[in-house]
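[audit] Reproducing an earlier prediction to check determinism. Same input, same settings, fresh worker. If the tokens differ from the archived copy the diff job will pick it up downstream; this log only records the rerun itself.
[audit] input (474 residues):
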Amino acid sequence: MNTSTIKFCTGVGTVTGANFLFQSPKGTKILIDCGLVQGEKVAEAANREAFSYDIGSINALFITHAHLDHVGRIPKLVKEGFRGPIFSTPQTKALAELVLNDAVNILAAEAKQDGEEPLYFQSDVDAVFSLWKTINYHEVFNLDDEISIYLKDAGHILGSSMVEVRVKKQEGENKEQEGGSDEEGEMRILFTGDLGNSPAPLLRDTEEVGDVDYLVMESVYGDRNHEDREGRINKFKQIIDDTMARGGTLVIPAFSIDRTQTLLFELNNMVETGKIKSVPIFVDSPMAIKATEIYASNTDLFNDRVKKQIQNGDKIFQFPRLEYTMSADESRNIERVKGAKIILAGSGMSIGGRVIGHEARYLPDEKSTILLVGYQTTGSLGRHLADGAKKVHIHGEVVKVKAHIETLYGYSAHKDGDHLLEFVSTASSREKLKQVYVVMGEPGASMHLTQRINDELGVKAIVPVRGDDYELEG
């Protein structure tokens, strides 16, 4: 073959299930991410389908970050024969170990309930990490004599990266076009993974697109905008104040990685400055607790404001009346704590985890509040609540919704529509940027962002068709 191609295997027309295949002119094949398709359950039936490529022909797998919808099918890939190297930042590898070791137990429980064999087993998860290697940000990694990889900070969660694939041009190709990578004889394709909602409370800002020929980007919030930083803090404080005044419980379904740590940081600041009433606050998620430990040991990746706060002696993940509940017994005992309290528990979309039990307990309580602080995928319990359901099913039981349901998407770890557009504008040359492929979003969000990129920036953008191959001009 004489051209590079991208195949959008899954992760198009939906927010979850990132899995893209890049093939170079010389035939090297690399995967970008291998995540679970998620909906009402942690793993939907779509995850049992065969991969749409020859697993044995894949040379390497690169992972943008550790969320389940980007790493959750890696053990299945290995179970079915993949033996190539897996690459990511060190922090992504550490967090992925937490995520996959947790997922294998949830998948086993779901499979048992459905009378099926689990998607994969603990031995498959263990095998994944025997193949996993790490690359630091801003280091050129030569995969072979044709392809090199360069990781940029995506600012989404700790260790999240944009994967820039650099392909050396073959002899005889036109190298006289303007632009750095053409002059250097390279074609560059940037896979964004998920893009951070910069400026974020904890992490550094997303880096710029820079000098690339092709861009594959997410679009979770491509058709809407978030509250601004001051607005989201004020709204968060108001929701806390109102719930505490009623003597209720504030339940926050929070993703274990980044969302929990960000909320803890904001709560730390409000508690220590006296902006909110001092009440018991529980982090009720073993994975979130372990993830917080990883965050606390990688503060060099925090933004300068937070690093200065820590240097001044603030232990941002430890403050009065905060309790980490690791065991199941400790979790059950939270209900015995009388009066107002705050509970952060996973999962963020109320698909599984301990938050389900808390929602079953407090949804019928009109004094309490369920606060949704991130994207809720179609079919999830969180989405039903966000859409105003008056009753929901939990563990086979009908649960009436009398609690206050609040949404606060400003704490999303994803860029909103305006900032996604602004991100594309950071390309060094819009003339050089030949095509933007808009993925990882519901159809309406992806199409809306695509139209804005075309109309407002004058850059060609499309929503690719799942399963199709797209040729890239050198």
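[audit] rerun output stored. Observation attached for the diff report: The longest strand covers residues 161-168.
[audit] end
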